[in-house]
Design brief:
With about 160 residues, the protein is an alpha+beta fold. The protein has a domain of about 100 residues: Thrombin, subunit H, CATH 2.40.10.10. The chain is about 20% helix and about 30% strand. A 6-stranded antiparallel barrel has the order 1-2-3-6-5-4. A hairpin with a 5-residue loop joins strand 7 and strand 8. The longest helix has 15 residues.
Length: about 160
């Protein structure tokens, strides 16, 4: 292949891989007050998950770890987290809410393809915290949407 043909093919490939991303419109940008209101509502629904895998199973090793999850269904007591947190094998786990209430949680689903899993808890076990669920809204996700991530710092506390 000639040098010109290689250069032309390289330019075509680069153009195929590029995409134009529009910046967010000014009127859609959230203010600091908007973020404060949103965070005050969602932080109580974010939990620290502490898990203990009693033995190595599949590709996961035995051990203890901590992670973040959030309540997606308050009435049924369902917490969403990452797939590896739910573990492929036997696991003992507990969730700690922002007010330090700790409750046991039980794995109910670990997606085989996507990076999510669910734990279940008894909603009646939360006695002292008023919290809301964070509803899932996959249709609202798109490139360029401004987000904030709320999670825990190595299991120490919940941080915005």
């Amino acid at each position: 292949m000639s040098e010109v043909a290689v250069e032309e093919k390289s330019i075509i490939m680069k153009e195929d891989l590029c995409m134009e991303i529009d910046p967010p419109f000014k009127e859609n940008l959230a203010t600091a007050e908007d973020w404060r209101k949103a965070l005050s509502k969602v932080v109580p629904a974010v939990v620290v998950l502490r898990t203990t895998a009693c033995r190595a199973f599949d590709t996961e090793s035995a051990g203890c770890s901590s992670a973040t999850g959030f309540v997606v269904d308050k009435r049924r007591g369902i917490i969403l987290t990452n797939r590896h947190v739910v573990k492929p094998g036997p696991v003992m786990a507990e969730a700690m809410f922002v007010n330090r209430e700790e409750i046991p949680v039980y794995p109910i689903y670990r997606d085989p393809v996507h990076d999510f899993g669910f734990f279940r808890y008894d909603p009646g076990a939360i006695q002292f915290l008023s919290y809301e669920e964070i509803p899932l809204a996959p249709d609202a996700a798109s490139v360029g949407v401004e987000i904030k991530v709320v999670g825990n710092d190595s299991g120490e506390k919940v941080l915005p």
